[in-house]
Amino acid sequence: MSIHQGKLQIYNSLSGQKEKFEPIHQGRVGMYVCGPTLYSEPHMGNMRTFINFDMIYRYLLLLDYKVKYVRNITDAGHITNSLGEEQDSIGSAARLEQVQSLEIVYKYNSKFQELQRIYNMLLPSIEPTATAHIQEQIELIEQIMENGFAYVVNGSVYFDVRKYSEKYEYGILSGRKIDELAEETRTLNAQDEKRFFADFALWKKSNPEDMQIWRSPWGDGNPGWHIECTAMSTNYLGSHFDIHGGGMDLKFPHHEDEIAQSCGSLGCNPAKYWMHANMLNVNGQKMSKSFGNYFLPKEIVEGTTELFDKPYSPNVIRFCMMQAHYRSTLDLSQDSLDAAEKGYTRLSDAMLLLDKLNTSAESSFDVKSIVDSFYNAMDDDFNAPMLIANLFEAVRRINLVNDGKETLSATDRDLMKKEMKAFVLDVLGLQVGVANSDSKLAPVMDLVLELRQQARTNKDWTTSDKIRDGLAAAGITVKDSKEGTSWS
Ligand code: AMP
Ligand code: ZN
Q: pTM of the entire structure?
């Protein structure tokens, strides 16, 4: 067991408190995160949630846990919004684009995979799709029916919330009380098939316009949205696993209903720790397709969104996101991105400098306590903004050593190098030295600068000047200093 395990505290939405993280099986973690519904390109808000869980996954890996990270792809079924209304968004997109449903999913999944690369996200261990797990969903529904918590009406199956509430607590996660729900949903229509307003669909009889239909013991239809996640999470992680995550907006009804389905079929809450990442806002309002206040993750990198007057590198955007705690809302503004660009460059420069620092016999400051502060920050419910503040204390010291005002021993320098790399590259998922908006340019620039260096070594000034002038004409400035050559 790694010496760093055993100190992590996680805010559990189920208890509303920070709790010591004790995995069900020592040294191993099973984590399920609700993935995207791929009826369109994920927006920056969706990406914030996935990037936050990427950071959480990365820290668990740094702590040397063997993590099985499952993040699904919703490619089937009816989507229920917070009012309980059902919309088949994939089907609607397919009809609009006049293609088949899976073409829509395939198209937007390739975009999503590309975004994961651009934003330097680690791939989950498995990305299961709902359509590949229809059988498991049907079996779970059968089990819920056998346990007496569901009923069939006209080819659809509904979860019986009142019956469930006799044995379990509906609202255990969201704190919603059935009486309050009645108030909220009073105005809803299309409730007629349900025995009770809070009941939700496990299986929905097909409509003539449905693009995808499956056979079931109750006739042709589609699975409910919530049952998809219950089937995929428990199929890969077992009936009770460590962490279930998703965006805050999924707490109710999606996660509440997942708990009800798991208790109603397998007899237990599926996850020990429920984690919810907060929203990316635009001027204080949740970024959302339906509000029309969204921008795409690629637009911000390419500088094509009207909101910002220049492009930002994925590193700068990630850094900016990491400066907000995952449980806090974040508003991406030009000012916050500009500040992040400066901060990220300062951190990145200091890390490059660390390699070249002169060392002394002894350090004039306590490196170990700085390194400990990195772990302490992340152990406190993945406090990435605190980690960044502590990394800047390291940056301040590195600059003082460089100015000859502090000293650093070789051993301490190596320790600092190892741990800063671990936290900046492996945990925050940043790359060093690519503040430039186009990260694809970085390897090309490395090559060009290497050729220029060769020309200079050969005293071939014509070629080296040609390269420099050509780059200048393309808006790229090359700077030579005793630390090496840099470009911007
Ligand atoms: P969806 O594709 O709508 O199911 O959403 C995929 C994920 O993105 C879910 O975990 C949502 O909670 C999350 N999400 C949606 N909008 C936002 C937002 N504005 N900020 C952060 N996360 C969001
Ligand atoms: Zn889900």
A: 0.88
